[in-house]
Write a structure and sequence with these properties.
Layout (H helix, E strand, L loop, with lengths): L2 E5 L2 E3 L5 E8 L5 E9 L6 E6 L5 E3 L7 E5 L5 E6 L8 E9 L6 E3 L3 E5 L2
Length: about 120
């Protein structure tokens, strides 16, 4: 059974940094770790960052230049380095993965809370 577990969230002051990690079981061949989403209080979950199988990265305009997505060599850990954090970044952050074969099932972690406040 695929499991995704996010970690690294917490309370940080504006301008600070945090590194989020997503540990995936069975991700070596069974799933592709694809990216990060976030959900602010009272809002829908939105896409934040994506990394392709070739390593190309994509970012939402709201975080471009401040966040960096990466994947370890084994492909079983997904990271999100967040810098110059703003109060608007406050949200629960979720790791997203997808199975390698049809019907391409989507998997989500339980989320990790990031709070940016002075």
């Amino acid at each position: 059974q695929v499991q995704l577990v996010e970690s690294g969230g917490g309370l940080v002051q504006p301008g600070g940094s945090l590194r989020l990690s997503c540990a995936a079981s069975g991700s070596g061949d069974s799933i592709n770790l694809m990216g990060w989403y976030r959900q602010a209080p009272g809002k829908q979950r939105v896409w934040v960052a994506l990394i392709s199988s070739s390593g190309t990265t994509y970012y939402a305009d709201s975080v471009k230049g401040r966040f960096t997505i990466s994947r370890d060599n084994a492909g079983n850990t997904l990271n999100l380095q967040m810098s110059t954090l703003k109060p608007e970044d406050t949200a629960v952050y979720y790791c997203h993965a997808q199975s390698r074969v049809p019907p391409y099932v989507d998997y989500w972690g339980q989320g990790t809370q990031v709070a940016v406040s002075s």
